[in-house]
Amino acid sequence: MTIESQNDHENAWGLLKALPEKLWGKVVDVAEKIKKFGEDDPRRITHSLKVGLAVTLISLFYYIRPLYDGFGANSMWAVFTVILVCEFSVGATLGKGLNRMLATLSAGALGIGVHSLATLSGDTGRPIILGFFVFLIAATVTFARFIPAMKARYDYGLMIFILTFSLISVSSYRENDQLLVMAYQRLTTIVVGSFTAIVICICIRPVWIGENLNNLVANNMEKLGKSLEGFGGEYFNITEEGPSMDDKSFLQGYKSVLTSQETEESMANLARWEVWHFRFGFQHPWKQYLKIGTLCRQCAYKVDALNSYLNTKIQFQTPSEFQSKIQEPCTKICSESGQALKELALGLKKVMNQPTSVNLHIERSKMAAENLKSLLNTTSLWENDNLQLIIPTGAVALILVDIVPYIEKISEALHELASLAHFKRVDARVSP
């Protein structure tokens, strides 16, 4: 054996010995990632166990002979229903379960009616009648799925309606005698499966999507408040002491607000199904959350514009006299508006009326905005300076003036929400 071949064998043997260690290392990495994923939100683990429990319970239709004899192969529809209906939140599960039951009931009744009508037309006309109604119903209901109001809440039900009607209408042509029995068994198993999923979802550590929406909007306001509150000190500190290398993550919190519209709309649509919630309940004004979310995004766009002026080259060339004169009202607007948003967020999280101190912060920010506008209208403030150098800082001041009305609108929208939802009152004593 040559030296080269001996070295090749040794290298191959070394790779084989190292292979189990590499595989074990990958297994450990995957396990750690799964553990972290579960620790980030333990509700995911709970939901997985709830789905497993629901599927196991509904499988008794197959395991217990009397139940299987009563429903036969249609028992599998109960299993399908549980798998399709079980969702992470109560609202999503209720929405899917009720949609599936109502769609199955209405489509089954319509299918039996069409079958009876087709039977009267004889053997020649029966396939024509059935085919015509299948085409008509499928086309009409599919078009209805494009209507925004229908798609938002009943899209799944409309799809099940088409499926159920088509199955009953088509199968009735060959299984004429067993049609009513088949329709009854499928409806019963679907109702049992839906109720099983709904009961387990509500009774075992429920996840209320309405609470998630409430907390999402509150957290968005809090992020806006922190970003706005920190901007004033950060901006004017930079102009005085130079760029800071400290962590500025608090200034970037507003960015998640800019992309939250789709999530808020989806949560609001699902929250409408949670009529049994102990805190919000029936006819809770979920649309008001969308209004507040829209106002928060409009404010976030202003904050985004403000952050574009941080660390700009021309910012450090702003005349110190101009900057020092507008610094006080600018930082006042930032601090008071930020405090107002954070207190509004805290009140929303606790589902209570806004504290009276919010109005005080808003009034102070409005006074600072008026003072800032008066300063900017004073020509002596900038007539001896280079306009190109003071324009960026002047733009920052004008954006801050524009932000104040949005804070007031958010406060008014939240007050309207508290009034419509009958939030609990809070007596906050604020010393002048």
What would you note in describing this structure?
Helix 10 packs parallel to helix 13. The protein is elongated. The chain has helices at residues 3-40, 43-58, 60-63, 65-71, 76-85, 90-120, 122-144, 148-171, 179-203, 209-241, 255-258, 261-271, 286-307, 320-349, 357-376, 387-421. Residues 238-245 and 428-432 have low confidence and may be disordered. It has 16 helices and no strands. With 432 residues, the protein is mainly alpha-helical.
Secondary-structure map with pairings?
Layout: H1 3-40, H2 43-58, H3 60-63, H4 65-71, H5 76-85, H6 90-120, H7 122-144, H8 148-171, H9 179-203, H10 209-241, H11 255-258, H12 261-271, H13 286-307, H14 320-349, H15 357-376, H16 387-421
Helix pairs in contact: 2-5, 2-9, 5-9, 6-7, 6-8, 6-9, 7-8, 10-12, 10-13, 10-14, 12-13, 13-16, 14-15, 14-16, 15-16
SS field, number of helical segments: 16
Uncertain runs with pLDDT below 50, 5 residues or more?
Answer: 238-245, 428-432
Record field, number of beta strands? 0
- Average pLDDT value? 81
Strand content is under 5%
Helix-and-strand structural type: mainly alpha
SSE pattern, N- to C-terminal: HHHHHHHHHHHHHHHH
